[in-house]
């Protein structure tokens, strides 16, 4: 029954922002209060779970919660089963974005303006940004000692990559799928693939920098902990920003911008190419850091990540050319996939 409750809650969390906000607040709030010694929730959960073995009648409230969460999930899906509701047009207030600021950057600015409008006006894009924001709290699993297995320095770097790369992973891996509904129109515009990629790259850079600034509260854990956040940011800004765009070139998943479904990923976005490109995004920095840390110590390991990041930055023009060649080669297959 507890597994079923978890399953039905997972359905609602992925479908409803309100449920996601409540669950995230409860989990993060209880974790934070426990870490700072304000309130230890395990004192009560331990008594509850032990009582299940001692008093069989406590199965009744668990059964009740199971039925409630089942009915909530069932009702949600049933509400989406009416054809007229799906076809009905909704009058929504649009958001106007001035061209004055973006026009100073030429074609790059116009494409950036389109991306900003996409995020502000569409549910699916906003959900990706929202999900990226909550990656900021991912480090609590690694920096608070909540999970003993995550206390090694290598895992702390892993946390730093995800803390500062939330938007990069939730939004960047679906470029150019975000433009799938009007990709044919984009292909008729007077712009190059390089200009298109640079606009996406710039957007990812801005959000990664913003996430890094918002993650500065990890300083309360000390400079040593925050150094892993900065290492993750450096790697994301120099290497992962390009590698994510590279992987996205192989994704031909049409995205419904008006829907918040599958906000945390789509199984169709994964193939053997994107899977292989996961290695330089995550496995490579961890392997480099772990190797240098074992051989020469943590300082040498941190320097190695910075050096690799600098090398990756200077390889950016070559990587962009590689991505452009993929776009050119896959152009008609991509158009066909987005039209289906």
Major sheet: none
As a whole number of angstroms, the C-alpha radius of gyration is 23 Å
Give start-end ranges of low-pLDDT stretches: 267-272
- How many H/I helical runs? 18
Structural classification? mainly alpha
Element-by-element helix/strand order: HHHHHHHHHHHHHHHHHH
**Residue fraction in strands:** under 5%
The end-to-end span amounts to 40 Å
What do the pLDDT scores average to?
Answer: 81
> What is the 3D shape?
globular
- Give the % helix: over 70%
Give the beta-strand count: 0
Number of domains: 2
Plain-language structure description:
By secondary structure, the chain is mainly α. It folds into 2 domains: 86 residues; 240 residues, no CATH class. The chain is 71% helix and 0% strand. The protein is built from 18 helices and no strands. The longest helix has 26 residues. It is globular, with a radius of gyration of 23 Å. 24% of the residues are buried.
Q: Topology of this structure?
A:
Blueprint: H1 2-15, H2 17-35, H3 42-54, H4 59-79, H5 83-87, H6 100-103, H7 106-121, H8 123-134, H9 140-143, H10 153-164, H11 166-170, H12 183-186, H13 193-214, H14 223-248, H15 272-276, H16 278-296, H17 298-314, H18 316-339
Helix pairs in contact: 1-2, 1-4, 7-8, 7-13, 10-14, 10-16, 13-14, 14-16, 14-17, 14-18, 16-17
Short note summarizing the structure:
The chain has 340 residues and is mostly helical.
């Amino acid at each position: 029954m507890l597994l079923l409750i978890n399953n039905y809650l997972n359905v609602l969390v992925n479908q409803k922002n309100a449920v996601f906000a409540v669950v995230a607040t409860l989990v993060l709030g209880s974790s934070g209060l426990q870490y700072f010694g304000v309130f230890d929730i395990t004192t009560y959960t331990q008594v509850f779970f032990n009582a299940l073995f001692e008093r069989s009648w406590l199965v009744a409230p668990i059964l009740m919660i199971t039925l409630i969460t089942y009915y909530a999930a069932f009702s949600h899906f049933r509400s989406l089963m009416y054809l007229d509701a799906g076809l009905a047009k909704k009058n929504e207030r649009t958001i106007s974005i001035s061209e004055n600021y973006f026009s100073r950057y030429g074609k790059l600015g116009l494409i950036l303006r389109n991306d900003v409008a996409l995020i502000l006006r569409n549910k699916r894009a906003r959900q990706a940004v929202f999900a990226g924001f909550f990656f900021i709290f991912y480090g609590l699993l690694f920096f608070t000692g909540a999970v003993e297995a995550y206390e090694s320095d290598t895992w702390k770097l892993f946390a730093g990559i995800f803390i500062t790369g939330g938007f990069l992973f939730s939004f960047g891996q679906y470029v150019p799928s975000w433009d799938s509904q009007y990709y044919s129109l984009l292909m008729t515009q007077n712009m190059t693939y390089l200009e298109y990629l640079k606009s996406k790259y710039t957007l990812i850079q801005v959000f990664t920098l913003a996430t890094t600034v918002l993650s500065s509260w990890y300083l309360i854990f000390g400079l040593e902990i925050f150094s892993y956040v900065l290492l993750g940011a450096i790697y994301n800004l120099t290497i992962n920003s390009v590698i994510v765009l590279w992987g996205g070139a192989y994704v031909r998943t049409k995205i419904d911008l008006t829907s918040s479904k599958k906000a945390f990923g789509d199984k169709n976005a994964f193939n053997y190419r994107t899977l292989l490109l996961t290695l330089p995004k995550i496995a490579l920095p961890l392997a480099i850091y772990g190797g240098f840390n074992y051989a020469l110590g943590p300082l040498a390991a941190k320097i190695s990540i910075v050096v690799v990041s600098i090398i990756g930055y200077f390889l950016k023009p070559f990587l962009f050319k590689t991505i452009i060649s993929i776009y050119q080669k896959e152009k008609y297959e991509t158009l066909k996939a987005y039209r289906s």
